[in-house]
Amino acid sequence: MKLWAVLFLLIAVLASTAGAGTRPSLRVAATNPVTIVGTGFKAGERVRVTVSTAGERATRLTVASARGWFRVRFAGIRAASECKVFAVATGSNGSRAVWKPTWMPCGAELVPVER
Predict the structure, then answer these.
(1) What is the CATH number of domain 21-99?
(2) 47-77 pLDDT tens trace
(3) Distance between CA 92 and CA 73 in Å, rounded?
(4) Where do the domains of the chain lie?
(5) What is the pTM of this model?
């Protein structure tokens, strides 16, 4: 009897934490037109995605899939590179993610360090 209680408790804990490890995140999938992909949102959550580039700003509404992801195309908005894009996604159930340009200046090349 104790074994069944332990198994039941273990299954309940695993089921409740199944999606707890993923945090919402954004990435720039394309720059012409700007396309944003979001992951880690709650299944079926309504998401407002706002994108800003040099002098342009647009907002789109979408719904996260059963797995918590979405893809939004901003037709007519182009960016020279992904480091020129700023995006914020806010979900109706409290999920939030931000895409900020990297710390590296746009167009900077990584140079290997010799040892």
Answers:
(1) 2.60.40.230
(2) 999 999 888 999 999 999 999 999 999 998 9
(3) 20
(4) 21-99
(5) 0.71
